[in-house]
Amino acid sequence: MIVGLGxxxxxxxxxxxxxxxxxxxxxxxxxxxxxxxxxxxALIATAFISNEKVLLVKPTTLMNDSGRAVGPLMDYFxxxxxxxxxxxxDMDLKTGRIRLRQKGSAGGHNGIKSVIAHTHTQGxxxxxxxxxxxxxxxxxxxxxxxxxxxxxPAMQDAFNHAADAIEYWLxxxxxxxxxxxxx
Length: 183
What we know:
Blueprint: E1 2-4, H1 19-30, E2 37-38, E3 42-49, E4 52-59, H2 67-76, E5 85-90, E6 98-101, H3 110-119, E7 125-130, H4 139-143, H5 152-170, H6 175-182
Parallel strand pairs: 1-4, 1-5, 5-7
Antiparallel strand pairs: 2-3, 3-4, 6-7
Helix pairs in contact: 1-5, 2-3, 5-6
């Protein structure tokens, strides 16, 4: 199960906080699948990637309640935490950079805090997509802002790179090997 974190709704489309959705949508486009199923407060697309059935998930909760969708979906589909990747924004990375991690704390990210609370573990894989720190605006306004024209090419590269990393892992590579290859 690959979960992209974001806020649902037109008002939030293409914002910094929705980079998780952008990566998941990139994968859906690659495999020509649509988010045509709704279950446990999430939109789901099913793709076959490297002969693996993969659920691409966009929680329909607000970002800070993402775990409300992730935990029940994992239970319902009997998905082990070792088969979960969560894709989300990270202000500690430069815009357009990605970083893969095998586990860790929420690092102040409320969406990740919610996933930890509802999965009862910090031991899930993450792909962090850099959105940089705000300059002269609040964090809330920053994460809900859109990328500048100058930033868009770097972000598209990041979305492609993150999707490539997911495919690489699904080809049977260990996540450690995937981290070494893409970090």
